[in-house]
Automatic annotation (TrEMBL):
Record keyword Coiled coil present: yes
Any Gene Ontology biological process: branched-chain amino acid catabolic process
Name listed for the protein in its UniProt record: Pyruvate dehydrogenase (Acetyl-transferring) E1 component subunit alpha
UniProt feature coiled coil, ranges: 317-379
Gene for this chain: pdhA
UniProt keyword annotations, A-Z: Coiled coil, Oxidoreductase, Pyruvate, Thiamine pyrophosphate
Length: 381
């Protein structure tokens, strides 16, 4: 006789399939994207925070234009610009504490730079020099990488481990609207909600997954509504409103840190430029569609708010612009230096202890390099 067959044994009774385990009403997002700038809520925002957000937006825009120029000069293999999405990325970085972790997607270079990473280090992957140009543990930033949504389960795993250890760490994972069509998105949200992991999911809905509009990816009322199906709150936010983004993300981070579990935030924004410099966006959208979003530019929105409140003058604008130009000049200087690469580094950071196959491959490459070096010396004589 098994334990469960014994008289009086505990037999858990699940609720009927029709009975909700969670009241869905508190989890539902607002009917319209939440806004702060241009509303009475802006009066409650710390003026210094608004000024900092503005300076970071200007710096981020200049970073995008400089990195795009570097692709045309052959210094970068590719660059996925986030022009128009700067508010999402800056707010994500500033909402975190130093102990927290950021899990970016390939387009989130501004977020990692605002988090404190050197501007040139954020482009190392896109230059093709290294898989990651920085130490993730040192900066508490997961690697920038191109596979869609694979960083989301990683964020959940780290957040779950943090909850078990009780160290108060929160993970913020960033993904585009296209990434929500990946299985990793479903798995990450489901595990996060079941485990009540301290993680915040930020979806930057910029309208297109390369050339595929959102309407061809989902029939949901919004991507934020998907949160309800997993048992977590969904927030719908104006992704070009840096103050609104910072408020909502800060609240979600605080909730996660206090044991409230995960939150899904959908930032409604727009990709002003092509998917990457290798993409021809005119094949799937009209210039008039892009122009319609220019009046909702995140920098313009912040400038209007600060100017109307007397918090921004010409000197402050000039200072923000000068700081951005200094960053761009430093970025150009670093990127114009020819990298010194060692082919043997291919085997250095794969495993802590190399497998027999890797040792064999490394030995083969080393021998080929020695032969090539000897042949070069012969030719030089």
């Amino acid at each position: 006789m098994t334990v469960m067959e014994q008289r009086g044994a505990y037999r858990p009774t699940p609720p009927p399939a029709w009975q909700p385990r969670t009241d869905p009403a508190p989890l539902l997002p607002d009917a319209e994207p939440y806004r702060v700038l241009g509303t009475g809520a802006a009066d409650k925002v710390d003026p210094e925070l608004l000024r900092r957000l503005y300076a970071e937006l200007v710096r981020g825009r200049r970073y995008n234009t400089q990195a795009t120029a570097l692709t045309k000069q052959g210094r970068l293999a590719v660059y996925p610009s986030s022009t128009g999405q700067e508010a999402c990325e800056i707010a994500a970085a500033l909402a975190l504490e130093e102990r927290d972790w950021l899990f970016p997607s390939y387009r989130d270079t501004l977020a990692v730079v605002a988090r404190g990473l050197a501007p040139a280090s954020a482009l190392t992957l896109l230059r093709g020099d290294w898989h990651t140009g920085y130490d993730p543990r040192e900066h508490r930033i997961a690697p920038l990488s191109t596979p869609l949504a694979t960083q989301l389960p990683h964020a959940v795993g780290l957040a779950h481990a943090a909850r078990l250890k009780g160290d108060g760490v929160v993970a913020l994972a960033m993904v585009g609207d296209g990434g929500t069509s990946e299985g990793d998105f479903h798995e990450a949200l489901n595990f996060a909600a079941v485990w009540q992991a301290p993680v915040v999911f930020l979806v930057q809905n910029n309208g297109f997954a390369i050339s595929v509009p959102l309407a061809k990816q989902t029939a949901a009322p919004s991507l934020a509504h998907k949160a309800v199906g997993y048992g977590m709150p969904g927030r719908l936010v104006d992704g070009n409103d840096a103050a609104a983004m910072h408020e909502v993300l800060s609240e979600a981070v605080a909730r996660a840190r206090e044991g409230g579990g995960p939150t899904l935030v959908e930032a409604v924004t727009y990709r002003m430029e092509a998917h990457t410099n290798a993409d021809d966006a005119t094949r799937y959208r009209q210039d008039t569609d892009v122009e319609a979003w220019r009046d909702h530019d995140p920098i313009l929105l912040m400038e209007r708010e600060l100017t109307e409140r007397g918090l921004l003058d010409d000197d402050m604008k000039r200072q923000a612009s000068d700081d951005a130009e200094a960053m761009a000049a430093d970025l150009r200087e670093h990127m114009n230096q020819e990298p010194v690469l060692d082919p043997m580094d291919l085997f250095t950071h794969v495993y802590a202890e190399q497998t027999s196959q890797l040792r064999e491959q490394a030995a083969q490459l080393r021998a080929e390099l020695e032969v090539a070096s000897e042949e070069a010396e012969e030719e030089a004589r």
